[in-house]
Amino acid sequence: MSQFWLIAVLSVFVVAVVFSGVLIPQILLIAFKKRLFDHVDGRKIHHGTVPRLGGMAFMPVVILSVSLLLGVTLVFDSTEVLMCLVSDMKSIAFLTSAVIVIYLVGLADDLIGVRYRGKFVAQIISGMLLLASGLCACHFYGALFIGDVPHWLGALFTVFLVVYVVNAINFIDGVDGLASGMSAIAFLCYGATFFIVGEYIYAAIAFAVLGTVVPFFYFNVFGDAKKRKKIFMGDTGSLTLGLLLCFFAVKLSQIGATVKDVNPMVLAYVPLFIPCIDVVRVVVGRIRRGANPFKPDQTHIHHKMMATGLSQRVVMVLILAMSMALILLNIVLSQVLDVNLILLFDVLLWLGLNVVLSRFKKNRRDCDVTSQNAD
Predict the structure, then answer these.
(1) DSSP three-state, residue 148
(2) In the chain, which ranges are continuous DSSP H helix?
(3) What phi and psi values does residue 34 have, to the nearest 5 degrees?
(4) What is the pLDDT along the chain (375 residues), one digit of tens a residue?
(5) Which of 2, 50, 68, 194 is the most exposed place for a label (fewest CB within 10 A)?
């Protein structure tokens, strides 16, 4: 059975890559014909006319790839697929509904603009739809010294997580390839974990999303704006990816299955650690300054790294490498350390990095001031 699903999961990944690779150039063509661009302002760091509708491809390609996989396998009377569909139909149906809600709101924001309150309401509705699917973050496996919590409290926490993770992915989308690259790493981790523990339908969905993101990453990072080959994901993409990532994280913790005695909380939430911890620091900083916590600024980790003189590409590579290293390190440490010690280690490591970056930024600014005074 696992051999059959291995072929199926790899097939859905390849199909998603192909469909996404075909669709994104068509979106670019339409965006330039209709002049749908991401406008440059004082906060943006890109130059030239770049469409921000890349996220339009995400939901259609994922649904098409997974539906095609299921349809083809059912034609050949695959009882394995039918059994999985029957057991997970409720979850998949409500997940699809939640993704459609957040996708449409993101699309509206990219085309005509939506106030953050409207997006906030859409995120809550999507979270409630995930609750209807049976998703609930009720199990903490000792993290923060908590075991299980009542269902009503887990339900509230699940909706909070949806809003939190969706905005974390949206906030981290400030450098070419960063949000899509971190999401791709997370989907790879989730897909592999679901496959190992025998949750093959969710593994197929995760790899379908991964296959969708890969071509976008290419056009976003390596596309030439002058040749009309570069594209951003926009809120359509970041909100959709954030919702899917939150679903997979909570689902994995809810299943409770583990790999090589690794704490389920490590497998579920460490792939999201960097965007989630960064958004806490940024929002707290905005509140302390009396600013709107949802108003964009240049205080994210990628902005601080670029302020030290690093290029966008280098910053992206460094943060993605940090994410992969942190995931692997946490998995290793989870076999010998308590989950709370691992969490403390991660937080201290992140705070230390920010202190170092702040000092580099200050030293660079002082050197620039000294140079200007000398001139």
Answers:
(1) strand
(2) 2-34, 58-75, 79-111, 116-132, 151-172, 178-196, 200-222, 234-255, 264-269, 273-288, 301-307, 312-334, 339-374
(3) -95, 0
(4) 578 888 889 999 999 999 999 999 999 999 888 877 765 554 455 455 788 899 999 999 999 999 998 888 878 767 777 777 777 889 999 999 999 999 999 999 998 888 888 999 999 999 999 999 999 999 898 898 898 999 999 999 999 999 999 999 998 988 999 999 999 999 999 999 999 998 999 999 999 999 999 999 999 999 888 888 899 999 999 999 999 999 999 999 988 767 778 889 999 999 999 999 998 888 888 888 887 777 777 778 888 888 888 889 999 999 999 999 999 999 999 988 999 999 999 999 988 988 888 788 777 766 655 555 555
(5) 2
State the amino acid at position 111 in one-letter form. L
| Cβ-based neighbour number of residue 21 at 10 Å | 18
C-alpha to C-alpha distance for 363 and 308, rounded to whole angstroms: 9
b (16+ CB within 10 A) / e for 192-211: bbbbebebbbbbbbbbbbbb
Domains in the chain, number: 1
Cβ-in-10-Å burial (0-12, 13-18, 19+) of 68 comes to middle
Could you give the CA distance from residue 302 to residue 311 in angstroms, rounded to a whole number?
A: 10
**pTM confidence score:** 0.92
Q: What is the DSSP string of 26-67?
A: HHHHHHHHHT------SS----S-----GGGGHHHHHHHHHH
Neighbouring CB atoms inside 10 A of 312's CB total 18
Q: Which two structure tokens, joined as six digits, stand for 272?
A: 């999201």
Amino acid letter at 310?
L
Range of the domain at 232: 2-374
Q: What are the angstrom distances between the C-alpha of 341 and each of 145, 275, 277, 311, 330?
A: 11, 20, 16, 34, 10
DSSP 295: S
Task: Say how far apart CA 273 and CA 323 lie, in whole Å.
Answer: 8
